[in-house]
Amino acid sequence: MYLHPEFEKLTRSEIEVLQMERLKKTIDHCMNTEFYRRRFAESGITPGDIRTLADLGKIPFTTKQDLRDSYPFKMSAVPLSRVVRLHSSSGTTGTPTVILHTQRDLDEWANAVARCLYMVGLRPGDIFQNSSGYGMFTGGLGFQYGAERLGMLTVPAAAGNTKRQIKFITDFGTTALHAIPSYAGRLYEVMEEMGIDPRRDTHLHTLIIGAEPHSTHLHTLIIGAEPHSEEQRRRIEQMLGVKAYNSFGMSEMCGPGVAFECREQNGLHIWEDYYIVEIVDPVTLEPVPEGEVGELVLTTINREAMPLLRYRTRDLTRILPGECPCGRHHLRLDRMKGRSDDMMILKGVNIFPIQVETVLMQFPELGNDYLITLTNEEANDLMTVEVELNAFSDDYHRLQSLTKEITRQLKDEILITPVVRLVSKGSLPKQEGKAVRVRDLRKTLI
Ligand code: COA
Ligand code: AMP
Ligand code: ZN
Questions:
Q1: What is the pLDDT of residues 34-78, one digit of tens each?
Q2: Does ligand 1 lie within 6 Å of residue 65's CB atom?
Q3: Cβ of 180 below 6 Å from ligand 1
Q4: Nearest CA to 241 among 221, 266, 226?
Q5: Can you name the residues that pair with 220 across neighbouring β-strands?
Q6: Where would you tag: which of 140, 191, 233, 290 has the fewest CB atoms within 10 A of its CB?
Q7: What is the pLDDT of residue 209?
Q8: What atom of ligand 2 comes closest to residue 259's alpha carbon?
């Protein structure tokens, strides 16, 4: 039932003792970075002032802007010769962020992901397929190493090419799949087109008469990387005939493996031997009353290359009350309720409106007004960018090549392909005189 019983079975007081021990070490280690030395000096505190977990509140928050300002290596707490991997956020406009890992960090990350996968019942002998993007997307290598660490045959299918994805599922007998929730619908749609019914009970069938070509062995789906509702989860489970477990993570905290549902599906256990959790009011930055929704703030206590103290994730959630019947005492987070900034997530890719704006503003033919609309009709997430032209033009070929160039440059920046529409000046909607920049028309988001 437990992959790491020595950590998973800790009681609340044991967790707190371990956290304090690791926090002290982490803070000392942070003093290897000029960033935290300066932060502590500026706020008039020393590592010795942090004597209890409650003292954590004395330390200033770390923000995404701090990571940008430290790009690329300024927050490394170890010599660069000990860093073996980095993951970077997308985008060429503005400054991206970089997260660094030592070999120990990668090992601990793989352990955390393996623990999550074991917790939902996956074992050596399962065949795990990952439809996440690889490369800089942490869902790729993060699940790859975690699933391998657990001892599963792991299929690095990566994103896209849905027919091939399904061929792998049927040919290899994939039993567990990691997919972004909005992509699960697309998978089902294409399975239907291919005459495959994933709901058939192939386990029983296979035992009796051998493999069944028009069904799958899928029994578990790991869904995460973007907000989704309970209703969406149930629909995915029914559609694909699987149990679907919510997985939460972010590149700043390694990637997947931060918080994960157990088989009770009643909230996401956050691994408190890796992270200290705070929930704060995003405006006052004070702790919210117990059980209320606020912004998740995380402190890493098991990381070498780039420890982060009180990192403002910008994700909104709450801590669920009560004990979990699974016996783990690690806190449970409610499913994410949204963000306290303007970041959008589409097809599992994080996008800030400013990235779109910066690209558009490089074209002298375009005016200042634009509108981003997000939709998800027919199991496909779509971003439409309408942008006003500076001057009227009826030169069809010029407009067409301009649209193509804008689309290409946007794709380079935001990694997904938007539909670009050039519209005439003054035609975009305004609300109380102000331009509307983003309309999210996706159904059943939260
Ligand atoms: N995961 C996996 N595949 C996806 C996907 C997703 N979230 N969203 C779309 N796709 C598939 C599409 O279905 C399509 O394949 P198909 O036509 O064979 O069905 C293919 O990817 C291209 O999709 P399209 O919408 O035309 O491309 P795009 O240029 O807008 O997006 C992707 C490009 C899909 C490669 C990009 O959105 C991506 O890499 N997404 C995954 C991000 C990720 O892994 N995040 C996890 C972070 S931990
Ligand atoms: P990335 O750094 O690209 O992995 O993106 C991390 C962000 O994705 C998080 O900060 C969340 O906003 C979002 N995210 C990841 N997992 C989930 C999840 N299970 N539910 C809702 N949002 C998620
Ligand atoms: Zn549990």
A1: 999 999 999 999 999 999 999 999 999 999 999 999 999 999 999
A2: no
A3: yes
A4: 221
A5: 176, 243
A6: 290
A7: 55
A8: 19
